[in-house]
Structure formats: structure tokens, C-alpha cells
């Protein structure tokens, strides 16, 4: 159900008080500076993403199918199911990890140093001719590299994303049980500042990723089938499919919004493991082949990575 803007439940206060000063500053500025952007992105892009997925995947959300089991009919029809909530963090785990590993890092300064590093690389010819300038150039790059390296967000990220059994999406989540999506604004604010990624497009990217999970799980195909066993499928299958379809959405809009592509690539770069598994098969399969493999996966229930790759090969053979 859509709530009008400005109602109190749209803005959930963080229960955790961050110790890192630059994180505390982002949190304090959220309601005045960033919340309107989150709400605008949600209002403008949520319908576009859903329309794209409905057409491209051939799946629709909501209990519109006549084959839906009794008791499900209370949900909104069409693609209005799966509400989106914007929250500070999931259980404050990311904020706690940042405080534990990077209590004093100034994320705004790290962002500025990244920009400076990029400029220094571009300006290299200016420093090339003169030994004094050359030394200064090399010293600045080494110093910046060392500072970024020792204050890297990779620690908190790999702790949350790549620990076996603890695997999770840091910026958002799709919840199987009651079928809703959550976006986490604090990890997004910190990461975008740190990596120099445009916040608006990062939100679109994360929303597209989480909605892809929602369609894969709860979306009904033309026979009314959903994918109830999806929670048991291998992370490479679930995350690979979500990255694939969100990238197709980016591809459909990058001509008009090149910054969306930049944000997508920048955010995939920061991820590892299951999320990047899509790169193994993305470019040598057509969208129709991937869609057919997805139909097979959903029929088979819970599948591992190897079985999914076999289905991709089978889809490629069938469709040519
Ligand atoms: Zn995911």
C-alpha cells in the first residue's frame, strides 16, 4: 500500500548512535538532506523497474492470478504487491561493523582523496618533465594510496557479505516471509560518499536488485507459478539472477541516464563472490536464454550453482 509522503512512519530513526563522527554527521543530515531524494527515487523509479521486469521476465507481482491459493487475495492486484521500506540499517550491523573497524575514518575525506587521486592520474603529463615535480607526484599518489588502503571499507563489507552463512545484501533486503523490500540508507550514504558514487543512481540500482529478488520469488508466470523454494537455492543463483536482471534494467536506461551505468558498475566492483558470478555467463547468453534458464530453475526448486549453469547451457542449446 502506498503511504502519502511526510507521514511519520516513512522516517525511522536509527536506534544505534554511531561513534564515527563522519557517519554521525551523515545520520544527522539524513532527514533534511537525503530523505527527499530517497522518497523521490522510490516514487519515480519503482513503477519503471516493475514495468520493465513484468515485460522482460514475464512475471507479475501480486495475487492477480486466478490460480492463487485462497487467502492471498487480500494483496493488491497487478504489480502493486511488495511494499518498499526505507530504514537506517538492517539491525544496525553495518554501522556497528564500521565503528568497530573504522572508528575514526572520515568518509568525506576518503571520497575527496579518491577524486584527487583520479585527478593526479589525469594530470600526470604535467609532472612528467621535471624531476622535482615527478617526485611530488609520486609521493602524493603513494600517500593517498596508503591512506585509502588502511582505511578501506572492505573490512566491514567482507565481514557482512562474504562470511559463509552470514551472506547478505548490505544496502537492501528482500524478505521472503511477508514479501517486502527494505532499503538501508546509512550503508548507502557511507558507501556513496566513500566511493564517490552518485547517491540517486545507487538507490535506483539497489531498488532494482531487491525488486528482482521479489519478482523471482513471488512473481507469477503465465501459469500462475511462483518460486517458493528460492530461499534454498545457492547464493550464486539468487544473486546472479538479481544482478543479471538489474543490469538489463540499467542497460535499458543507460542511454538516457549514463550515470546509472556508472553507479551500477561502481557498486558491482565493490562486491565479490556470489554477486560477481553473473559475469561468468552474462555476456555469452541472450536475454531469452537467461529467461528460459530462469524458468527451469524456478520449476526445479532449489538448485546449486552447477545445476544452474547446466540449465543455462541447456537453454542456449534449445534456443540456439
Ligand atoms: Zn541480493
What does this molecule look like?
The protein is mainly alpha-helical. It has one domain (8-105, 151-319). 58% of the residues lie in helices and 4% in strands. The chain is built from 12 helices and 3 strands, in the order H-E-H-H-H-H-H-E-E-H-H-H-H-H-H. The chain has helices at residues 21-57, 93-101, 107-122, 124-128, 131-150, 154-161, 185-195, 199-218, 235-253, 258-269, 287-300, 305-319, and strands at 84-87, 172-175, 180-184. It has a 3-stranded mixed β-sheet with strand order 1-3-2. A hairpin with a 4-residue loop joins strand 2 (172-175) and strand 3 (180-184). Helix 2 packs across helix 6. The longest helix has 37 residues, at 21-57. It starts with 20 loop residues before the first helix and ends with a helix. The relative contact order is 0.12. Bound molecules: zinc ion. Zinc ion binds next to helix 8 and helix 9.
Name the ligand types. zinc ion
Radius of gyration: 21 Å
Q: What is the domain tally?
A: 1
The overall pLDDT average reads: 87
| Biggest beta-sheet profile | 3 strands, mixed
Name the strands of the widest sheet in spatial order: 1-3-2
Q: Please count the beta strands (DSSP E, at least 2 residues each).
A: 3
Order of helices and strands: HEHHHHHEEHHHHHH
**Overall 3D shape:** globular
User: Roughly how many Å apart are the termini?
Assistant: 42 Å
**Relative helix content:** 55-70%
Structural class: mainly alpha
What is the count of DSSP helices, taking H or I runs of 4+ residues?
12
Beta fraction: under 5%
Low-confidence stretches: 1-8, 64-77
